[in-house]
Amino acid sequence: MTAIYAALLAIIGVVLGERVGLFRLKAKVSLGDGGNSDIILRNHQHMNFVENVPMALILIALVEVNGGSATWVHGLGGSLLVARLIHPFGLNVQKIMHPARIIGAGLTALVILAAAGKLLWIAFGN
Fold this sequence. Notes:
Layout: H1 2-27, H2 37-65, H3 70-90, H4 99-124
């Protein structure tokens, strides 16, 4: 089950990464951000994904292989997918408290904490 979410999230990750690369070509900036706010924004959208998704997917996979129910795995995976679809639209160079950013980041953190809690429950609660 986790493989489905990993595959869908991989597509999102590639799209976010390609948006950085394509804009670098357009702006003629090979390395760094060249002070270009569009490159900074697109790079941050991609890097935030890279910083958060691997840990969440590892935890979800561990819930699955350690006997977590399909409901748990799909709940965690679906929530992560929604969070990572929403989050990039909330990043804004001028505005820190955009609702999409808050929802995306908050839901991602909730998935990670819920998966960690479930794993601890599986390990010690039975």
